[in-house]
Request: fold
Amino acid sequence: MRIFYLFLLLSFSAITSSAQTVVVRAGYLIDVANGRVIANQSILVEDGTITAVGDRVIAPDGTEVIDLSNSYVMPGLIDAHTHLALMEMDGSDIDDHGSYYFTSLIEDTSMRVAQGTMLARSMLESGFVWVRDTGNNGLYGDVTLRRAIEGGWIPGPNMVTAGIMIAPFGGQFQMQPEKPDLGNPEYTYADTHDEIIKAVRHNVHYGATFIKLIIDNQPYIYSEEDVRVAVEEAHDMGVKVMAHATSDEGIRNAVLGGVDSIEHGFNPSDETLGLMKERGTYLVGTDFPAARLGETRYWSNVERNKRAYAIGVPMAFGSDTVYYEEGKTRGEQTLGFLDSYVDADFPNDYILRMATMYAADLLGANSGEIRIGKNADMIAMPSNPLDDIHALYGVSFVMKDGRVYKSNGQFIWDTPRVLNNPRRKQPRGNMLRQN
Reply:
């Protein structure tokens, strides 16, 4: 009898979690790969996957129709560098002075997951269907958040998660000898090759789907050989590696060591940028707005972007949004980070590719384009972002994995009657190979 009831429960779960067949009527479909608009297209979605696109799509009888005939439809957005379980309050009631050092001491992991629940919904509402969460989450708060979203417990973008950052002693903090453990659990300190291998394995075991190395925040930095040890261990398990690196030497060590992306990368020489192009290493620039970063530093980053673009370095959009800004949601703040690419005179179609198909490639996500076989991840807005990137602030429709989360400007969330068990799901969307 217990087996029979279990069968009924699993059957009901499968029915309620399966995606509905729908056809989306797009008045203006943005082909991000070619930077063009195609009028009057239909997109057939079955079980969360795009199965047909064109002007003569034949849908099964009774298929639900979503009318976006007056909208511009494009792939959902991707932020390749974010921190959903981190928000510096800048002098609020916790008075952390805008430093995640204080945040890590004051807020425990459970509070940061609760905070991430709010921020994840905000990101999805603004059109971000995938994010790569890059550490500073306490004790695997990002993994918990990802599993809750996968299980249907809360709304949010699909997530790639870095778990705990791996760094030489001190990480990004200046420690004091009386309290050498204050950096835990923000970092795993690994100074030998054996420690680096162990740290990579622990991260993957506890649910990280990407590895993050801190290369050069101390007088001592990870060498090319140090980086290669981490990369070989991670890649052997099918997991990619990102490197927080800001100095030219640190960036070069990380690239030669084989990382998949450089985060921040503020001060590379043209020679190092050329090496990144040669190796296919992504630059995720994380360029804060001038009002936050300061004019000198901001325009230095813009100049770096111009050089990287001219050299042909692969680039993916990442914000690194970590602070609270009065009157703006986390999603709206994140969109503001696109302005540095506008100021660098990037073509709008290239900026869209950075935030869709290029970021999807870096994350290993089956997303970023509206074409057959891709996840049904799409957004819509009343004006054309190919003409003005700021049109993205007007996202009125969001679909993720074939499910509608926003329609006519209103967010939609109905708690499912049956939830999946997120602990039993260990997706490897970023896998380099399949065993």
Remarks:
- The two ends are 37 Å apart (CA to CA).
- Residues 77 and 397 are 12 Å apart (CA to CA).
